[in-house]
Amino acid sequence: MLESSLLILGIFAIAFVFAPVGMGGGMLFVPLLHYGADWPIDGTLLAVSLGLTAVVSYGSGLAHRREGHHDDATIRSALKGAVPGAVLGVGIVVMLADNLDPVFKSVSVFMLAWAAVKTQRKMASLSTEEQDEAGAHEGTVNHLTLRAGSGIGGLLSSVLAIGAGVIYVPVLQQIGQLQTRKAIGSSLHLMMVVVPVAIITHLIFLSASEWQALRDLMGFVLLLPLAAYVGSTMGARFGLKYMSQISIMRVFLALVVITFLRYLLDLIETLS
Question: Within a 13 Å sphere around the CA of 260, how many CA atoms are in the beta-carbon half?
């Protein structure tokens, strides 16, 4: 009972922290369930983590939409790459089978390092005033490159059970030419479409044993989305009201670095 309560509290806290920065929280949902509840990294864990990520994206995404922090034209263009990428990602998971764990952690390390570098460069190039006064678009958008970058995000969403905001936000900022808050809101809107596609595709390919594991955990699993929804809704409102754009980027970078170190240690331990 205590362990379950702590896990639910952890889900709430992750959703609260990740919602204001345009991320679904999957990078921490996965290790929380993997280490906190001893779940193996398999299709069952990926589907549940993606379900929690979907809840966070909807709770925070709708809050950002009400405030006008989204760009529908850019979202529609990015989805043309992100959705096929998500389907392809599930195919990769199925092919990896028992080799998923080390590949999962290796890809996570490289992905997080890339996002940290990109975010740091963005922060260095803009002052707080420039961040606040930036327009919706600052240049011409290369839609082919935007879709390719979003496709990588969709693929990683399925493979790593994440919302892929760590990919979408820098892509939308630097290729989609969106101001930070709109990039974050648009990232969440991508998740609201891509993550359900990834969940459904994962469920189609679950093995009989994975389906049985999911059924055995169903009573507990149904409590987790509620904690994620409450946390994401409260986190989004807090972030939109009290956090400046440069502060949001700093939190985003800190979360990326912390998660990078966690996965790197996990990978070293796995390979040793």
Answer: 16
Predicted local distance difference test score (pLDDT) of residue 132: 45
| 115-125 b/e (C-beta count within 10 Å ≥ 16 → b) | bbebbeebbee
- Give the count of domains, the chain: 1
Instruction: Measure the CA–CA gap between 143 and 81, rounded to whole angstroms.
Output: 10
Lookup: tokens for 114: 């890339």
Rg of the chain (C-alpha set): 17
Do 227 and 55 touch, CB atoms closer than 8 A? no
The range of the structural domain enclosing residue 206 comes to 2-271
**Pick from 195, 246, 199, 232: nearest CA to 62:** 232
Count Cβ neighbours within 10 Å for each residue of 228-249 and write b for 16 or more, e otherwise. bbbbbbbbbbebbeebebbebb
* pLDDT tens per residue, range 20-52: 766 777 877 888 888 888 888 888 888 888 999
pLDDT computed for residue 45 by the predictor: 86
Q: Is 257 exposed, middle or buried (0-12, 13-18, 19+ CB in 10 A)?
A: middle
Residue pLDDT, tens place only, 138-187: 567 889 999 999 999 999 899 888 888 878 988 898 888 888 888 888 99
Query: What are the DSSP E strand ranges found in the chain?
Result: none
DSSP string for residues in 173-230: HHTS---HHHHHHHHHHHHHHHHHHHHHHHHHT--HHHHHHHHHTHHHHTHHHHHHHH
Summarised one tens digit per residue, pLDDT across range 194-232 is 999 999 999 998 888 888 878 877 777 778 888 888 888
Neighbours of 39 (CB within 10 A): 17
